[in-house]
Amino acid sequence: MSSRSGSPLVVASSLSVSHRAATFGAFAVTVGLGLASAAPRSPTLVVGGALLALGAGAALFLFAAIDRIVLVLPTAAGIVEVAHGDSSSLAWFGLCILGGWTAFTGGRTLGFAAWIAGVLLLAAEDIFTVQDPGWAAWSAGLALTILASLLLRHQIELVEQMRRLQADLAQRSRAEERNRIAQDIHDVIAHSLTVSLLHVSSARLAMEHDPDDAVRALSDAERLTRQSLMDVRATVGLLSSGDGAMASPPQPTLGELPKLIEELRAAQADVSLHLDGDLDELAATTASTAYRIVQEALTNAARHAPGSPVRVRVVGEREAIDVSVWSAGTPGRGAGMGLRNMEERAEAVGGHLAAGPFADGWRVHASLPRVSVPGIGAE
After folding, report:
1. Domains plus CATH for the chain?
2. Which residue among 158, 159, 215, 231 is buried most deeply as judged by most CB within 10 Å?
3. Which residue blocks in the chain are alpha helix, DSSP H?
4. pLDDT digits over 74-130, tens only?
5. pTM over 0.70
6. 365 — alpha (psi -120 to 50), left (phi > 0) or beta?
């Protein structure tokens, strides 16, 4: 509905039939009142002007698909025929309505043109017919009507723009939420399957020498698989909810890191955890982001460098927390989804993440603000 783009009839076509009919009704009343007071002066000319104004005005006001430029001129000419030389004629109200309608439906350019043409017309009436202060009053009335119409048009455009922005924001929020849930599904599945695979491998190796240990490893693998299946079902249930507002599943915290490490140790992985500094009073999003980064980094280390020692270090500083996961082995190159997810998670809370070779191994390092700052660093 912008006055600078699209057809000049966009606003007119968006009006309801009742609005257009009401506008034409007001216009017809003013022409009729002008006709009643001017008919005795020159009946044939005045009646012809009234018919011209009403006919062209009906097409202009009632049918938005008809080009207004073709119809504005005959409509204005009909009004002049009815009210010519009489500054007290109520038909001049019809000229104000015509100017306001042109500005409202056509925008600033056509509104300005209508104002200039109307002022010149009224000035000509003042010069060539009867000099009267009423012509100046009609000029002011025309200007105010056009200005009010432009302001009304601008308000409608702002409301429509706000609706579009709200719709875009809602769509973007839903897309971001679905992307976050998809990241959670990836993290849960990747970690659970990796740890389960470690348990199965341990069970296979222990099958001949220690059947009891093999049974325990298979039981742990079964438990993790069932738990991951339940987590995935719960998360997918959020995606398929039809209430339009997806509730967030419970997010992990740094307090659950020891349990995560123990799961890997139970699968014979060489993992150590070091927590230092102030790790209390963190933003919930920062804590869950740190947990997910550690989880994904451990999963990658177990997949790409199995058997290598892994060191996890989380340090709480004054303004941020420092998360570091180092593996003695160099992980292979995968599709990169896990690393991309970690980077997006860090950027989403206003932090940053880097991964690469470090001290004869591979390190994932992230710095996250204690209070998350959404959007900083994210696209």
Report:
1. 10-167 (no CATH), 268-379 (3.30.565.10)
2. 231
3. 10-14, 17-38, 43-62, 68-83, 92-106, 108-128, 134-206, 211-239, 257-266, 284-304, 337-348
4. 999 999 999 988 999 999 999 999 999 999 988 899 999 999 999 999 999 999 988
5. no
6. beta
